[in-house]
Amino acid sequence: AETSIATDDLILLSDTSASGALKKMTRANFVSGVGGTNTPYFEAYLGSNQTMSDDTTTKLNFDTETYDSGGMYDTTNKRFLPTVAGKYFIYFQVTYDKQAVDQFHNCHTEIKFNGGTHKQYYSDFYDNYTPYALVISGHAIMTFNGSSDYVEMFGNFNVTSGTGVVKSASQSTFGGFKIIE
Length: 181
What we know:
four-stranded antiparallel β-sheet; mainly beta; 15 strands
């Protein structure tokens, strides 16, 4: 019958070398250094649709938290500033809606790291205009120093005329988590 292993139980291992000797170790020694946690982590979304001006790169208003394990997502400045150094998986999905706009020309979303563009995700539709809405998603693995590094999201769309919006709630999200190394 299967049972749980107690911390001080012994685990037998067979040495596959020529000796074939049995070795034993405690459960605590066996599992030390195994595993870890993917914290801190966060996910945020837009609390309401965000209107954007034509062809103007604009900070995306991810102002509402879904998760924030360590209180490291700043809803005022709309940025993630982890105080734990390491590599992080950062992801986003942004839904651009042309609303009353005639047509999209192009659209891009940027992951900005410490104020500079880290990655840009771009769609160009000149002469082949898009339908009603466009979803751009992406991700990156980034290294944070645990003290001053931060990440934030920006968007831009170029339309034939008028303005459009970035859709709120589950249609536009921004998140990340620490990778176990």
